[in-house]
Every structure is written in structure tokens, then in C-alpha cells.
Design brief:
Blueprint lengths: L2 H17 L4 H16 L4 E7 L2 E8 L14 E3 L3 H9 L3 E3 L17 E9 L2 E10 L7 H74 L4 H31 L7 E5 H18 L2 E7 L3 E5 H17 L5 E9 L4 E8 L6 H4 L22 H11 L3 E7 L3 E9 L13
Parallel strand pairs: 8-10
Antiparallel strand pairs: 1-2, 1-6, 2-3, 4-5, 5-6, 7-9, 10-11, 11-13, 12-13
Helix pairs in contact: 1-2, 1-4, 2-4, 4-5, 5-9, 6-7, 7-9
């Protein structure tokens, strides 16, 4: 066989052997073994660059006395010794007589000559391929040429395997981080749920007894009891909203799906909000079609009550709030809550669903916790609907809900700010 054909056969066999390996470890040990055997070398060691260190990762010959075990694994600083020099300068070096080169770092194989070639990927050093011979001038020009050729093939394949290993490690870390986060989140949710229960029992007692005491209280005492009731109701609302957030986050929310007359739901909500509207001097009106909607009535009512309450609180004296409900097509219903209030500027509107954010200049005067809109969006999406908000400062705000008339027909559309 001619020299050219022999070289081609060696390269071909080496390339095929690389395709059969999956992991980085498998690949490196296969490379070291195949290079040593195909070229008839006594020794072959693969170093990979980690930071400023070249670390022995796989070997053939004396350094590998048993399966996948490197005897006395060493690490070489970039620039140190012959291997470190090759790694630093990214150039092949052949030292025919090691007794005349003070850079030589003695290892398990006490060689007389050494050949080292950089492993490159995209012109960057990722490692070094090294071999020693027990003879002075133990490598000829054919050995140098083939060693460099195989190193060129190996560099790209090693880089690919390293990238794959890093990707897999990152995926494992991500899964672990997610599991840890889920575990911590469940623990947090369980704690809040237990604390909420412990809060609600005495709170309900405080509110109940305060209402009883108000019946026979003088004006001064009644005023104090009103403050107790207001504070208690404020805290109870926060506890209930916290429980809603937990249920939505943990997918604990159970829906009671029934056929619901939308006109009845809207009118019922407005009736319950009349007292608040009168106190704020805001006029409520509705325009609803006589349609049946398959949904959870209580959750839909919770959303509408929140939206109407916001529309009243952030309105102006003699302002208006209008709730309309009309079919969009044969499959969807659109519910719109419009007000003539202070409005929200474009920057704040992008953050409307973030918890604990309140944007009005009157926020300190207005009761609320800043989680209502976040809960509204999550509830609407749990009902297979979407929510869209548009607003203009000093003109008003328009909140549009789209819900499927039949619950199972929904496609979970995305909500928008």
C-alpha cells in the first residue's frame, strides 16, 4: 500500500472511531487509544485546557495501566514545560532529544524524545495531544504529519463534545434548580396557607364582636369600632387575596362550571357596588345581552367586582362606570368595564399585572394591596379567557375580557396590557 493510501486509511479509521462515541469521556479515551495504535506509538496523552491549566484526561501506554485510569495524573500550567509551551503558543513542537531540553517534565514514561501538537477549535487552543518515545529522535516526518492531521480532526470533535457536555450539565442544573424552586415554593405556599388560616379565625371573631358592639355603642365608641372594622376587613381581604395567589400559582384552583346568565352576574355585581359608588359620587350603568355563559360564576364575579371597584376608586366625582357584555361571535363573549377616571400612563400600563404596584397619585388614600389585577388576569386565564387594558391619562380606562361561551372551546389566548 502506498504511503498516501496508508495515510488516508489511518485518517479514515480514526474519523470513523470518533463517530461511535457519545460522551466526552468515551471520546477522549477512544482517541488516545486509536492514535497510539494506528500510528504505532508507545505513548499518547490527551490534555484539555481548563482555565490556565492543561490537565491529563486520557492516555495510552504506560500512563494507562488499566481501564480508564491515568496513573499519577498531572496538571501543567500554560507556558510550563514542552506541553505548556505548545498550549501557550498554539504551535507543534518536536524535541528529538529530551536530555538537551530543560523544559522537559518527567512523567511515568521516561521518554527520550517528545512530540506535542495543539488541539485547536476556531483557532483557539482547547488542549494538547502529546506523545513520547523511548528512543532519541523517535519520530519521523510521517509521524509528525499524521499526528498533526489527527489532532486537527480531534480538535473539532472534542469541542463539539465539550459543548454537548456543558449543555447537558446546564440542563441537569436547570432541572435541579426548578425542582428546588418548586419545593421551596410549595413550602412557602404551605406556610402562607397555614398562617392565613390562623389569621382568619381570630380576625373573623374580631369583626363579628365589633359588629355586635356597634349596635349599642355611643358615637365616639362607634367611630373607634369603625376603624377596627375597616382595619380588620382590610387585613382579611389581603389574607383572601394571598390565598387566591397561592391557589393560582400551585394550580389548586377548582372551578365550578355552570351555565350562567351574564346579565344577571353583571347587574348583581353593580348592585353590590352601589354603596361604594354613591360614596364616591360615581354613576354605574350596564348594557348586557341576554346570554348564557359556561363558566365559574363566583370567579367571574370576583373579577368583575375587582374591576368595577378599581373603576370607582380611580374615578372622579360625577364620573361614570359602564359594564357591557356582548357576543363577539358564535363562540366568544366580550365584557367591557369602562370608566371616566384618572387613567394610567403608557409606562405604568406595561407593569399593571405586577404584584404590589399601584400607580395613582392618590394611592395612599385608596384601599388596596396591589395584587388585584394580577389575580384578575390569572383568574380570567383559568376561565380560558383573555384580558386587555387600554387607558389614557385624564380620560379613563377600558378593560376588555374575552371569554368562551363554552368552556371547552377555549384556546387559552394570551392576555395583554
Amino acid at each position: 500500500m502506498s504511503s498516501g493510501k496508508l495515510n488516508l486509511e489511518i485518517v479514515n479509521q480514526f474519523a470513523i472511531s470518533l463517530l461511535q462515541q457519545n460522551s466526552l469521556d468515551d471520546l477522549l479515551w477512544s482517541m488516545a487509544s486509536n492514535i497510539g495504535e494506528l500510528l504505532g506509538f508507545e505513548d499518547c496523552v490527551i490534555y484539555l485546557l481548563e482555565g490556565d491549566l492543561l490537565i491529563q484526561k486520557a492516555a495510552f501506554g504506560v500512563k494507562n495501566p488499566e481501564a480508564r485510569n491515568i496513573k499519577n495524573q498531572i496538571k501543567i500550567q500554560l507556558g510550563e514545560g514542552i506541553v505548556g509551551s505548545v498550549g501557550l503558543n498554539a504551535r507543534m513542537e518536536y524535541v528529538p532529544d529530551l536530555s538537551k531540553d530543560s523544559r522537559y517534565i518527567e512523567d511515568e514514561f521516561s521518554g527520550c524524545s517528545e512530540l506535542a501538537v495543539p488541539l485547536l477549535y476556531e483557532a483557539k487552543v482547547i488542549g494538547v495531544l502529546d506523545s513520547e518515545s523511548s528512543k532519541v529522535d523517535g519520530f519521523d516526518q510521517h509521524d509528525l504529519k499524521m499526528f498533526e492531521s489527527l489532532a486537527n480532526i480531534a480538535g473539532a470533535r472534542i469541542a463539539s463534545a465539550i459543548a454537548q457536555a456543558e449543555k447537558e450539565a446546564a440542563e441537569v442544573a436547570l432541572v435541579k434548580a426548578k425542582l428546588d424552586a418548586d419545593k421551596a415554593n410549595r413550602a412557602k405556599s404551605d406556610f402562607i396557607a397555614k398562617m392565613s388560616h390562623e389569621f382568619k379565625t381570630p380576625l373573623n371573631a374580631i369583626l363579628g364582636f365589633s359588629n355586635i358592639l356597634k349596635k349599642n355603642a355611643d358615637p365616639a365608641t362607634e367611630e373607634k369600632l369603625d376603624k377596627i372594622l375597616w382595619s380588620g376587613q382590610h387585613l382579611l381581604a389581603l389574607v383572601n387575596e394571598s390565598m387566591d395567589v397561592i391557589q393560582l400559582e400551585q394550580n389548586y384552583l377548582k372551578l365550578d362550571l355552570r351555565s350562567v346568565p351574564i346579565e344577571q352576574v353583571v347587574i348583581g355585581c353593580l348592585d353590590m357596588m352601589q354603596s361604594e359608588a354613591r360614596n364616591s359620587e360615581v354613576h354605574l350603568e350596564s348594557d348586557c345581552a341576554s346570554l348564557q355563559l359556561e363558566t365559574d360564576r363566583n370567579r367571574l364575579q370576583q373579577v368583575l367586582m375587582n374591576l368595577v371597584s378599581n373603576a370607582i376608586k380611580y374615578n372622579r366625582k360625577q364620573g361614570q362606570v359602564k359594564v357591557s357584555a356582548q357576543p363577539v361571535n358564535e363562540a366568544e363573549l366580550e365584557i367591557v368595564v369602562e370608566d371616566t377616571g384618572v387613567g394610567i400612563d403608557a409606562t405604568d400600563l406595561q407593569l399593571i399585572y405586577e404584584p404590589f404596584r399601584r400607580f395613582s397619585s392618590r394611592q395612599n388614600e385608596i384601599q388596596g394591596h396591589g395584587v388585584g389585577m394580577m389575580i384578575c388576569r390569572q383568574l380570567v386565564e383559568a376561565l380560558h379567557g383573555s384580558i386587555h387594558i387600554s387607558s389614557e391619562v385624564d380620560v379613563g380606562t377600558r378593560v376588555c375580557l374575552r371569554l368562551p361561551l363554552k368552556f371547552h372551546d377555549a384556546q387559552h389566548p394570551a392576555s395583554e396590557g
